[in-house]
Design a protein that fits this description.
The chain has 12 helices and 9 strands. The chain is an alpha/beta fold. The protein has one domain: Alpha-Beta Complex (Inosine-uridine Nucleoside N-ribohydrolase, Chain A). The strands form 2 sheets. It has a 5-stranded mixed β-sheet with strand order 5-6-9-7-8. Helix 1 links the parallel strand 1 and strand 2. Helix 1 packs parallel to helix 11. The relative contact order is 0.16. The mean pLDDT is 96. The structure holds alpha-D-ribofuranose and calcium ion (CA). Alpha-D-ribofuranose (RIB) binds next to helix 1, helix 6 and helix 11.
């Protein structure tokens, strides 16, 4: 039986690849996509998500529009390269009528809730508001596997990764909820490098999945090559989906993690205490520290190679 999952996105090129990977890989069943404001305004996130699903022949997967703001009033920098209209035809699909937060609450209180992994790859606002409105969800969501955080170098600030920095208050609620949580942060995505040759190969598959995902993967990789002169690129959000498809590809260490809210230079940092035993506290997160890069790329081949 494929593992059911719901993905919470701020689509975004790498979010679109994550959606398609979840929609195409036989080891998982994509139940729904919930959208939140993040690297793009909510309306664009919904449009991009619908467009990726429609072009990928995944029109049966419902898309729910969620929250279009964050728990704080502070501005946060969006990456202008990520905040974009994906180069896909305008979707004819429409989002589902229900709000994403209502959907998450109803779904996780329903019969399939305890069998469905939640995969947020965006700011954690939808998930935090759902937990505030219905605290019982903490006992119904079996596992969260999220892309977000960094215990070494950030990308939005020296201390913080974008998804956490965009809404640290929401992230703290989710990290403290007591739900089994795997963090796929920048230390993992930086090891999951996709080369231009990998991207060429995926693009060359004569399958409907590769026709949509191939150019998106290539664009992500090309961006790293162009912007940083790198030899390969990251497809951040796909790493979290891959860690659900094949949990063994992710190497983790338990830690006590919390979110810095007030540091002048460190707001939004995921502070991960790997020596939690010395402080007499319990671990609350399995923190990703490494990934099997070759298997990660092979999972793309399995999904999009047909
Ligand atoms: O820091 C990486 C995250 O920010 C990813 O989720 C990517 O989609 C961007 O929004
Ligand atoms: Ca994202």
């Amino acid at each position: 039986m494929p593992q059911k999952l719901i993905i919470d996105v701020d689509t975004g090129g790498d979010d679109a690849v994550a959606i398609l990977l979840a929609g195409y890989h036989p080891a998982v069943e994509l139940v729904a996509v919930t959208c939140v404001e993040g690297n793009a305004p909510l309306e664009l996130v919904v449009r991009n998500s619908l467009a990726a699903l429609e072009q990928g022949n995944l029109a049966h997967v419902p898309v729910y529009a969620g929250i279009d703001r964050h728990m704080h009033q502070q501005p946060y920098p969006r990456d202008p390269d990520q905040e974009r209209r994906l180069k896909l035809p305008e979707p004819t699909l429409a989002p589902a009528a229900a709000h994403a937060v209502d959907f998450l609450i109803d779904y996780y209180l329903g019969p399939a809730g305890p069998d469905t992994v939640l995969v947020p790859v965006a700011p954690l606002t939808n998930i935090a508001v759902a937990l505030l409105r219905q605290p019982q969800l903490a006992r119904r969501i079996p596992q969260i596997v999220l892309m977000g955080g960094a215990y070494t170098e950030g990308n939005t600030t020296p201390s913080a990764e974008f998804n956490i920095y965009a809404d640290p208050e929401a992230a703290r609620i989710v990290f403290q909820a007591g739900i089994p949580l795997k963090m796929v942060g920048l230390e993992v995505t930086r090891q999951a490098l996709v080369t231009p040759a990998d991207a060429d190969r995926i693009l060359s598959y004569p399958t409907p999945g590769a026709a949509v995902a191939g150019p998106l993967i290539h664009e992500e990789v090309d961006w790293f090559v162009r912007k940083f002169g790198a030899a390969a690129g990251q497809v951040y959000d796909a790493c979290a989906v891959a860690a659900v498809i094949e949990p063994a590809i992710l190497h983790t260490r338990p830690a006590r993690c919390d979110i810095e809210l007030s540091g002048e230079l460190t707001r939004g940092r995921t502070v991960c205490d790997f020596g939690y035993q010395f402080r007499g506290v319990a671990a609350n997160v399995d923190v990703g520290v490494g990934i099997n890069r070759d298997r990660f790329v092979a999972i793309f081949d399995e999904a999009f190679g047909g």
